[in-house]
Amino acid sequence: MSRSLKKGPYVDPIVLQKVMKMIEKQEKKIIKTWARDCDIPPEFVGFTFAVHNGKDFVPVYITEQMVGHKLGEFAWTTKFKGHGGKAATTVAPAGAAPGATGSAAPPSPSK
Asked: Residue 36: how many CB atoms within 10 A of its CB?
């Protein structure tokens, strides 16, 4: 759910202070932050943030299209490993019915 318009966007004061100092000094260094919930204001455009994803810091370069989103949206916390792959498409032994379990050999007749 989005934040109330009455409250306005949440921008972490420490991150905003770091950006304002860098604008004042006219330097562009990577800003390391754990504040994933921080909204991206227009002042952040052109800066690179190292956003923590729970394990590492992911570099995120801020563009105009990112304004209004959260920093955490651009640093995934989980790794997508794909759907199925080789394990889901294993070849059944010859003569086995699809979906059958057990051995592929027919049962021996009992006397």
From this structure: 17
